[in-house]
Design brief:
globular, Rossmann fold, eight-stranded mixed sheet, 43% helix, alpha/beta
Length: 247
Amino acid sequence: MNIFFEIHQGLPREAPGDNESTSRAFSALSKMPAKPHILDIGCGPGMQTMHLAHCSGGVVFAIDNHMPFLKNLKQNLEVKNDNLKVCVLDMSMFSMGFKANSFDLIWAEGAVYFIGFEQGLAQWKHLLKPDGYAVFSELTWLKPDPPTKIKSYWKTEYPAMQSLDSNFESIDRQGYLKIDYFWIPENSWWENYYHPIEQKIAELRRKYPSRSKGSAQLDEAQLEVEMYREYCSWYGYAFYIMQNQPT
């Protein structure tokens, strides 16, 4: 796990994405108040956090339980010095202490897989205002019947990954209205995520010699990149844009 964080420390994002996709998803929220309260769950180093604060003009509560990511976000906020309203909190998504109906928007880019897509929809719903929004980006199968190699890989790495239709069914079951969805572009996997990861792996090869435990973990990280390079037509990150429907 320490090597995982060595690979990921200093990355611009902790999942594929880009500011353009963040803007596109936010622009689909037609009934947001002028200064919304936003909860960014699993914020990581916070590129999307800062962009959300800029786009919304509201207050973003950014939570993560890995302190180096939060420190990175705080440093970036200080450097930007743009009067962005961001409250950075060391907090687990599994034990958030916010009151019910606290937020106009719950946002999670590439983080809901820690709890599961439908579980996140169910367990975080009470934090939304009655007509509040939820926006998640989630790893999703693009089409049915993937090749055995990539199907087996993700069955091990993320067995809960679903198709669009299955996730739409989860949205319906949990009492949300589907507003929109879209796929993030392929270059968003590379520019802010996989290219920086490959650079980190190359640097760490000098620290962890061949056939060491550390080297094996670097191989695992590189394998994820190679899987996407070979099978990117079969899966991707979809943005799901939803609105709470009171029960």
